[in-house]
Amino acid sequence: MTSTAHLSADLLSGLLTFTTPFNVTSSRFLARLSTEESLFPRVCELHNTLELLASSSSPMRRLYELRGVKGDGETNQDAEDLLSFMLNAEFLLYSLYKEYSILLNPSLAHWVGCCREFERYAKGHVGEWGLRDQVLKMRAAFVKGILSERGEDLAKITPQDFALRGLDFDVELDSFREALLDQGIYEEDYYSDGPEVGDSPQAYTESQNDSRYSKTPSVCTETTRTPATPSTPSHQQDAQAQAQIANILVQAMSEELTPILTDRLLTHISANLSILTTIPLELLLAPAFSNLFSTNPTLTRGLVSLFLSSGNKSQRRELLGSLELLPITLGSLEMLNDLTQTQLLSNGEIVHLVHGVLANGVRTAETMGARQAQNRLVKLLCLFVQSVLRSEVVVVTDVYYHVQDLGVKFMSVKEARELWRMYCAT
After folding, report:
1. What does the angle CA 266 – CA 352 – CA 298 come to, to the nearest 5 degrees?
2. Same-domain check for residues 194 and 268
3. Quick check: is 248 in a domain?
4. Domain end point (choices 204, 225, 241)
5. Which range has highest mean pLDDT (96-105, 146-155, 240-249, 256-265)?
6. Which residues does 185 contact at the CB level (< 8 Å), separation at least 6?
7. Are residues 272 and 415 in the same domain?
8. Can you state the angle between helices 235-252 and 288-295, rounded to 10 degrees?
9. Of 204, 226, 241, which residue sits at a domain end?
10. What is the extent of the structural domain holding 340?
């Protein structure tokens, strides 16, 4: 699985049921997974697929593409399929952790963000509501039902029931502020109207420019210009481009870059790998690296691959140390899980990285005062352990003492207890 992997066409099709109760669809989906298959990659793929469809200006056509079939994506049936997938996927994310408080669900930030984004979209909407708009509106209403802890009531109905009844729920999104702060993934954007560009419907669709960066020098000027000839000196231009890139990367530690700028930046560096040597080493040190990942995860993933494949020894050493110290979130563990399954790391580096991540995670969990946040972090660590073991990038003896630590110190957490019994209770 890659960090941008989407749900497979086979599994995606299983979530297109419009007249089947949510709990039945969820149970069937889980039954289709291999008993040896980790849920961690599937959760990441669900998030990625939902995000792709929600941000697309033509989500029904994009759904056809993900399924590998042809269609124009403009009919009522297409809208039913899109609604079915979105609601069933959101319910699946809920049902995986339904025995815990909603505040402990790893998808809490995803749901709060979903509701906030739609509020901004609806605020700036002008004209009639099209099929896409109606689906997104019902999805936001469904998510509010989950946040209102009405998941068990929703389990008994179907996507068709939900659509026909016009169900909606009142939920105070600000009430989740403390929980998100405890989880360490709170973002101010969830609780503000955001920049002016966010108030227009266009801001809700993909590939839109962010007005905050309208004055930022475009890396594209360097990637699309005519190559210098022997009679045209380019040293000064190269130096200017390197300075621009350095400035943008510093900016990226505190401000989110647009997808277009991120893509251009990574494309330019990939085509000019010597630029890596000019990037300040401080950028790879914690907490600067953690800030970069938190603010621009896609950019960070790209840079990690570039530094590991083409950087120097000092950059590699510092980067691996910073990867071990990343805050434990679903996004960071997804990236680390992907990284262990590439050819970018040696076996010894993989084992060392997994050791460092688990040691850092256990230390962090021990110092947490909020029980709910602690439980959530421990669950994420357990998912990570299961994933690296099942993908066989490490063996049980490599993580035995960390599993023992999790099981003994956090026996009250179901996942830690079961992990300990599976690998240590002999």
Report:
1. 20
2. no
3. no
4. 204
5. 146-155
6. 109, 327, 329
7. yes
8. 80
9. 204
10. 253-423
Reported as a single tens digit per residue, the pLDDT across 107-166 is 888 899 899 889 888 888 777 888 899 999 999 999 999 999 999 999 999 999 999 988
Amino acid letter for position 367: T
Together in a domain, 55 and 184? yes
DSSP 56-95: -SSHHHHHHHHHT----S-SHHHHHHHHHHHHHHHHHHHH
H or E element: which one contains 195? Answer: none
Torsion-angle region of residue 133: left (phi > 0), alpha (psi -120 to 50) or beta? Answer: alpha
User: Is 330 exposed, middle or buried, given 0-12, 13-18 or 19+ CB atoms closer than 10 A?
Assistant: buried
Asked if 328 contacts 375 with a C-beta cutoff of 8 angstroms, the reply is: no
Enclosing H/E stretch for 105: none
Question: For residue 212, is it within any domain?
Answer: no
Q: What is the pTM of this model?
A: 0.57
User: How many other C-beta atoms can be found within 10 angstroms of the C-beta atom of residue 362?
Assistant: 18
CB 29 within 8 A of CB 14: yes
Q: Count of residues for the chain? A: 426
> 């086979």: which residue's tokens?
10
For the stretch 10-49, pLDDT in tens is 999 999 999 999 999 999 998 887 654 567 778 878 888 9
Identify whether the C-beta of residue 5 lies closer than 8 Å to the C-beta of residue 44.
yes
- Is the bond into 195 cis (omega within 30 degrees of 0)? no
60 neighbors 85 (Cβ within 8 angstroms): no
| Domain-embedded: residue 238 | no
Q: How many domains does the chain have?
A: 2
